[in-house]
Amino acid sequence: MSEYRPENPLIVQGDQSVLAEVGSPRFAEARDRIAPFAELVKSPEHVHTYRITPLSVWNACAAGTPPDEIVDALREYAKYPVPPVVEASIRDAATRYGRLRISRDPEGLTLTADEPELAEEIGRVRGVAPYLGERLSPDSFRVPSAERGRLKQALVKAGWPAEDLAGYTAGEPLPISMREVTREGEPFTLRTYQSDAAGAFHAGGSERGGSGVVVLPCGAGKTVVGMECMSRVGSSTLVLTTSVTAVRQWIREVLDKTTLTEDQVGEYTGQAKDVRPVTVATYQVLTHRDKKDAAFKHLELFDTRDWGLIVYDEVHLLPAPVFQVTAALQARRRLGLTATLVREDGREDDVFALIGPKKAEVPWKVLEGQGWIATAECTEVRVPLPKSLRMPYAVAEQRDKFRIASENPDKLAVIRRILERHPDEPTLVIGLYVEQIEGIARDLGIPVLTGTTAQRKRDVIYKDFREGRIPVLAVSKVANFAVDLPDAAVAIQVSGTFGSRQEEAQRLGRILRPKKGANQAHFYTLVSRDTTEQEFALKRQLFLCEQGYAYRIADPKDI
C-alpha cells in the first residue's frame, strides 16, 4: 500500500505502536480486528494508543491467528503505509513461536530446535542453560522433568517460546458429564462459544491441547467452560479461585450442571479441608503461612491426589507462590480462566509460559450483540472537591491525595440522584475504602458487605439480594471477584484501586449477566474532578475501551 487513505483510523508507527482515531467511521471494525494481537496502552477521548509486542503476537498465533492475517489487518485499516520494519518484526515474532519444541521420548523430556544453529544459541543463553541437561544431538537437549516449567519461563524471557508437546499425566479417572436438565429442573445446553472454547483447550485430547487460557467476559459463563473442560478431560480436578464465596459458587454450579454428586466435590478453604475427586480451593488458603518465613503448608494440596486437571479461575490474580508451584506441575493439564490477560504486576509472560497461551477469546461487544451479556452504558461523573478539602488536598502526600479525592463526601448526593434515576433496578455501590463504604451504607440505610463480614452473613445477604429482598447493596473489594450476583443491573463505583484495569473488568462484570426485558446495565464511576483520582480513572478506563465500550463524561447536575 503506497497511498494515503484519510478514511482509515490507524497510524502504524515504526516503534510498533498503533494510533487509532476514535472519530473514524471505521474505528470500531479496526479495533476489533487488531484486538487479538495488540495491547491497548492509553485511551484519551480522540486517539487510542496500542502496542504490538512479541508476547501479544505469540498469543495471537497460539489462538490460531497467522502472521499474514495480522499484517493484512494493519494494512487494511492504516491511514499511511505500514512501516516495513513493523511487518518484519511481526513475522519474526510469529516465526519464533514453535521453532523450539519440548517433547517426550522413552528416556524423558527433550528440547529440540528446528536447526542446530538455534540450539547452539539457546544453549549459550545464560538464563536458559541451567535448565538444560546433556546435549543429545546438534539440535536437541535432554530436559530434567523438574525443570520443564522453569525452562519455558526462561525461553519466553529470552524471546524463544517453546511449544510444549510433551503431553500430560492422565490423572485419576473421573467420568463427568454435563446435564441436559439442571438439578433445579431448568433446560441446559452449552452456548456455541463455550463449547468452542473448551474444544480449543482440549484439542481432542492431543498433546497440542491441555494447557492454556480462555478469555471471556464476566457473566459469559467461564465456569461452564471450566466444567466442560473437566468433562472432556475426565479425571480428578483441582479448581483454584479467589474467595470462599467463589468456592461455594463453583460447587453449586458443578452439582447443578454436571452428573457429579455431593460426595465427589469438596471444599478446601480456611473453614473446611475436604479433598475429594473434584476439590475447589482458594488462593488465600494455599498461600497462607503462620509467619513470614514459614513454609506454605497448604501447597501440599497439589500433591494430595493424582490430579488430571488444574483450573486457575481469575488467572490474572494468580499469586507468586502458586506460580512457583505451577512451574513444577507442567505434567498436569492446566486451564486458566479470566476476563482480561492484563496483570498489574506485569507477569503476563509467566501466565503464557506456565499456564499456557491464549486458546480462545470472545470480545465483550460480540457477546453483547448476541444477547449473551447485557448492554452496558458507562458514565464517569466528575464531582468537584468541596472547598473545605481543597487545601488539605493541596498539601497532602501523593498517596493521601488519592484517598482524600476518593472519599469526597459530595459523592453521596450523586449516589442518591443515581438511585432515584434507577428506582426499580438492583444496584451495587462499590468502593475501595471500608470506612467510606460503611459510611455510605449508614447514610443510605442499606446493608454493607466488607472483608470482615462473616461468611454466613455474606451468604444470607447475597441470597436476599439475588431474590430481590435487598434492592441496593454496598460492597467493598470483597465483591470484585467471582460473586454470583446475577440480577445486579446498576453499579456505582465510588472508589477504586488506583489505575487497576483488572478491577474495572471485575466490577463491570458484576452487572453484565443477561437480564429480562431491555437487557440494559448501567456502570457509573464517581471521581473527584481535577485530582489524581481522575488521572487514575483514565488508566482504569483502558479496560472499557479495550472491550469496545464508550464512556461519557458527566457533571453531577447532568444526573
TrEMBL record:
Name of the protein in question: DNA 3'-5' helicase
EC number of the protein: 5.6.2.4
Alphabetic keyword roster: ATP-binding, Helicase, Hydrolase, Isomerase, Nucleotide-binding
GO molecular-function term, one example from the UniProt record: DNA binding
CDD domains in UniProt: DEXHc_XPB, SF2_C_XPB
Catalytic activity: ATP + H2O = ADP + phosphate + H(+); Couples ATP hydrolysis with the unwinding of duplex DNA by translocating in the 3'-5' direction
The keyword Ligase belongs to this UniProt entry's keyword annotation: no
Pfam families: ERCC3_RAD25_C, Helicase_C_3, ResIII
SMART domains found in the cross-reference section: DEXDc (SM00487), HELICc (SM00490)
Gene3D superfamilies the record matches: P-loop containing nucleotide triphosphate hydrolases
PROSITE patterns linked: HELICASE_ATP_BIND_1 (PS51192), HELICASE_CTER (PS51194)
Class of enzymatic activity (EC top level): isomerase
Domain Helicase C-terminal intervals: 410-559
UniProt keyword Nucleotide-binding, yes or no: yes
Ranges where the Helicase ATP-binding domain occurs: 203-359
Family designation: Belongs to the helicase family. RAD25/XPB subfamily.
Annotated organism of origin: Longimicrobium terrae
Residue runs in coiled coils: none
